[in-house]
Structure formats: C-alpha cells, structure tokens
From TrEMBL:
InterPro entries xrefs: LipidA_mod_glycosyltrf_83 (IPR050297), RgtA/B/C-like (IPR038731)
Transmembrane parts of this sequence: 12-34, 68-87, 94-113, 119-139, 146-163, 169-199, 211-235, 280-304, 316-340, 346-364, 376-399, 405-425, 446-467
Membrane topology type: Multi-pass membrane protein
Top-level taxon: Archaea
A single BP term in Gene Ontology: lipid biosynthetic process
GO CC annotation, single: plasma membrane
GO molecular function terms noted in the UniProt entry: pentosyltransferase activity
Organism expressing this protein natively: Methanobrevibacter filiformis
Pfam families in the cross-refs: PMT_2
Name of the featured protein: Glycosyltransferase RgtA/B/C/D-like domain-containing protein
C-alpha cells in the first residue's frame, strides 16, 4: 500500500513530464511512420542521402567517390551505421534515429524552462517548440538539425544545473556539448555561450575557484567523448570539415559581395516557422511576443527610474554602457552582410560580456531600498545570446534555408514564453486585485492556468493536424522506381559506370557509386563526357537527345538513358 501511495504521488508530481513524454513520443512515432511509408525525400532532402552514404562507409560497405561526405558531421551517420551493422540497412534507420532526438528536444525544453518558469509556462514552451511547423516538418526525416538542437538544449540544461545546483552535472554537460558539435558542426557556437554564462555570474576569481575541480573533470569527460571521432578522422585521413565550413561562410561576403544578402530573411519568416498552413495562428503568438516585449521595455524603464533616484555618481556611466552595448549588439546584426561573420560574432560576444558586467555593477551600486536582484539575469541573457548569435551566423550566409532556423527555435520559444509569462503575471495581479475588492474567493493564478491550457490545446490541435499534410514526393517515387528497374534490367549493374544528375540518391538506392553530373550541361558536352568515361547508364530529371545513348525508360520526371550497341 505504501509503495502504491508513493507511486501515485510520484505520478501526480510529474504529470506534466509524463504528458510531455506521451506527446513527444506520439508525434515522433507518427512522423517516423509517415516518412517511412511515404516517399518524401524529393528535391529538398538530398543531404539525407549524403548521410546514408557516410553511414554505409562507417558500417564497412565500400562506396567509391563522394569524398566530400567525409566533411559531414559524423554523429548521425555513426549511429545509423550501428543499425546497418545489425542488418537494418534501410532508409528507415535514419528516420528512427533522428525521430528519437525529437523526443529528447521537447523533453529538454520542458526541463530547461522549468529552471526559469512555472510548470504551466514550461509545459506551454515544450508544446510550442514541439508543435511548430518548422520542427515538425524536419522531425524523423533523416536531417540533422533537430538532433543537433536537441542535444544543445540538453547541454544547456545540465550546464545550468551544474552552475546553479550540483556541479556533478558537468560530467554530463560537456560530453553532451561534444555530441552536439559532432551532430552538426554549427553547434560549435554553444562553447562560447557556455563561457558567456560563466562570465555572466560575475565574481570571476571566486567562481574559478568554486567551479574549477568539477568543471575540469567535466572537460576531461568531454575530451574522452571526442576521442573516438578524432581517431576516426585520423585513421581515415579525413580533414576537419567544420574548419572548411566556417572558412567558406566567413569568406562568402568577400567573394560574392555583389549578390544581395537578405539579412532579415529569418526575422521576416517567423510566422511561417511557427505555423505554416495558417498564419493567423502564428499571429496570435506574434501578438503575445509584441505585448510581452512592450511590458519588458516598460519594466526596464521603471528599473532605470529607480536608478535615477540614487545619488551615486557612477550609475550614469553604467547606464550609458548598457545602452551603448545594446546598440552595438544591434549593429553586429546589421553589418553581417558587410564583413565576415567571425568579426560580427566576436563583437557580439564581447559586447554581451561588457553588458553583463555593467548590469551586475549597476545592481551592486543601488541602495537597499531600490536594489533589485535579477536572479534570472544569467539565464535570460544566455537564451537571448543563443538566439542572437545564431541569427547573426545564419544571416551572414548568402544561402538562406528555412531549417537553419531550427537552431534559433529554442531562443524564439524563450522569447514567446517570457512574453506570455509577463502578460499573465500582470493580468493575474490586476484581476486578483479586482476580485479581492468584491470579496470573491478564487484560486490564485487561475487565469494563468486557464490561458496557458487554452494555448496548449490550440497547439496540440495544430500539431496533429499538421501531420495530415501530404508530404509525398512524386520525384522520390520516380527515383526509387528507376533504381528498381535498373536492378532488374541489368544483373551486372554493380560493375558498370552509371552517371546521374542526382547521383547521391542513386548511389544509396543502388549501393554503388553513381557519379554525380552537374546540371545545365550542354547536350553535346554531356554526350562526350558520358562516352569518354565508358558510361552505360545516365539517369536524369531532364530530357535530352543524346547521340550515343537511347532513352530506354521513363518514370514520371526521371529519364534513363542506355548506351547504344
């Protein structure tokens, strides 16, 4: 009986967590099932086939060519290769692996935001993140954005726990940071963010002594986690792909300066990222964000009015530094299309450190009456820096891809959650005051609970309705059919030369090198290239009149050419 009571108490205390698990598992399973039963990997999913090719190599299946897959982030291909070694050589393997990370991400958001908000706001935040169109469409489809951001969320959760509650969590936080990085190299920005959080706490000398021992142990665990990946790179003589990737982005402004870079692309499409089919639902949350921002600005002004009452002559200088720092952060974003993103990021991080120092000094100078200890300052500034640093990074890149915003979704979720919290706190205080005046007894914060639950129900409806959208790709079906035809048409297909303008896709389906042929090649040149390389088959999504090749089969958008006898 006692065990039963304890179990019921445990369940009651963790109802929200259980609900989040049920929600995220249901969405993940449905997404994996839909993606596995429908051919979805069409035009926008070529990268998935690169990860599959790398997974084949890691599992011991030799695939020639495609050396550039060695530059890919290795974690997801490595996990996928484990399933391949057990005989599950299927595209569904990568769907399952990437789908599991969705569960970790939604759960991580709930746990992370519980460190800052009440249970209802944290629950709303997890559902908001997990039901956004952008996250849903890239869940369980083989791409690495959701796995990377999920690991980053868990990294920050355990890192903050390490600083604020129990330093033993460093042992988990740093290995997770390493895994986040190898899940997607752009997650490397989390390392300066971790350093920033440490600096935000102030009292540098005291904190170094306080956190050195456990922090160093955590770093050692992180290094141990990185060793298998480093050995894989070394043994296979693979260059460090993230260095070349960073250099490419860093020099893109200089080499393509004549092209127009829309730095406001991601900001302008936020409504689409929240909920794409119906922007009206997105606008509800944008209105919440705007109102909450206005309230925050009002509270900041009120805060500085309290400062003005203080006679301390140094306060004005700290006030000036904070205003200047905020202006410089905005400036860092606006100049991303003029100079390398590296300088913008350095400027941004240094400015943020100065801002935190000034704010901490400002609080310490206030007298007891006006002093306001902002306990969540480090957490809030970290989340804002998370959002802004990635906004600068990806806005500097000339190529804008919607899924890149997934790395900013936790930051956007925080901004919406903070805005909603500000609105509900103010609403609760005013409504409770009016109710008390007329002597009506009502549960405190009831309006917070009701409004939060209404928004959660709305998000649940939109998330499940979004899964009903038909994601099937006719091109993906045609390519799969074309591959099956070649297998049945030519038993010797493994030993002949095959070219394709979507080479990686057919390399996976045929599990042999299918040489990639660039698009827009003139017909005469294309014929000569194929002939000179003893090509037997050419697979294309364009129709050609090739002199030495016959069009032998057509599957919708896919044309198969075979060399003439």
């Amino acid at each position: 009986m006692l065990n039963k009571k304890r179990l019921l108490k445990l369940i009651n205390n963790n109802l929200s967590l259980i609900f989040i698990l049920i929600f995220s598992i249901t969405i993940a399973v449905l997404s994996i099932y839909i993606n596995s039963t429908e051919n979805i990997l069409g035009d926008s999913y070529r990268d998935v086939f690169f990860y599959l090719i790398e997974s084949l190599r890691m599992s011991g299946i030799g695939i020639d060519g495609y050396d550039y897959v060695n530059f890919l982030s290795p974690l997801i291909p490595f996990l996928c290769s484990i399933l391949f070694r057990f005989g599950f050589v299927s595209i569904n393997s990568i769907f399952v692996i990437t789908g599991i990370f969705y569960i970790l991400g939604v759960l991580g958001i709930f746990l992370l935001f519980k460190l800052r908000f009440n249970n209802y706001i944290s629950l709303f935040s997890a559902i908001f993140f997990g039901s956004s169109s952008l996250v849903l469409i890239w869940t369980g489809n083989g791409t690495i954005d959701v796995p990377s951001v999920s690991l980053t969320i868990l990294t920050f959760y355990f890192m903050i726990l390490s600083f604020e509650k129990n330093q033993n969590y460093f042992i988990l936080a740093f290995p997770l940071a390493i895994l986040s990085f190898f899940a997607k190299y752009t997650a490397g920005l989390l390392f300066p963010l971790i350093l920033l959080y440490f600096l935000f706490k102030g009292n540098l000398k005291e904190n170094i002594k306080k956190y050195f021992k456990k922090g160093f142990l955590g770093i050692v665990c992180g290094v141990i986690t990185a060793i298998p990946f480093a050995l894989y790179f070394y043994i296979n003589k693979i260059p460090l792909g993230f260095i070349e990737q960073a250099e490419t982005i860093g020099t893109s402004v200089k080499t393509t300066i004549k092209l127009q870079n829309d730095v406001f692309y991601y900001i302008g499409n936020i409504s689409k990222f929240i909920y794409n089919p119906n922007h009206i639902i997105s606008y509800i949350f944008i209105v919440i964000l705007v109102i909450g921002t206005v309230i925050c600005i009002y509270e900041i002004i009120k805060y500085f009015k309290n400062i003005a009452k203080n006679k301390n002559k140094y306060l004005f200088y700290y006030y000036f530094i904070i205003i200047l720092a905020i202006a410089n952060v905005i400036f860092s974003f606006l100049i991303v299309n003029q100079i390398s993103f590296k300088y913008c990021e350095i400027n941004f991080f240094l400015t943020t450190v100065i801002l935190s120092i000034a704010f901490n000094k400002l609080n310490s100078k206030l007298d007891t009456k006006n002093k306001k200890i902002y306990k969540c300052f480090s957490f809030d500034l970290l989340m804002i820096c998370w959002f802004t640093s990635y906004m600068i990074f990806f806005s500097s890149h000339l190529i804008k891809v919607d899924r890149y915003f997934i790395t900013m979704m936790p930051g956007l979720t925080f901004l919406v959650a903070t805005s909603l919290n500000k609105i509900l706190v103010n609403l609760d205080s005013k409504l409770n005051l009016k109710i008390n005046l007329v002597n009506i007894t009502i549960n405190k914060h009831v309006f917070t609970k009701i409004i939060s639950l209404i928004l959660i129900i709305l998000l649940l409806i939109t998330s499940f309705s979004y899964l009903t959208i038909d994601k099937r790709s006719e091109l993906a079906e045609n390519e799969k059919d074309a591959s099956e035809w070649i297998k049945s048409h030519d038993n010797n297909y493994k030993n002949v030369v095959i070219y394709a303008d979507r080479g990686p896709i057919f390399t996976w389906y045929l599990q042999k090198e299918v040489v990639y042929m660039g698009s827009n090649v003139p017909t005469h040149d294309l014929n000569n290239i194929l002939k000179s390389n003893n090509t037997t088959y050419y697979i294309s999504i364009e129709k050609y009149d090739l002199f030495d090749y016959n069009l032998v089969k057509t599957f919708g958008q896919v044309y198969i050419y075979e060399i003439k006898d």
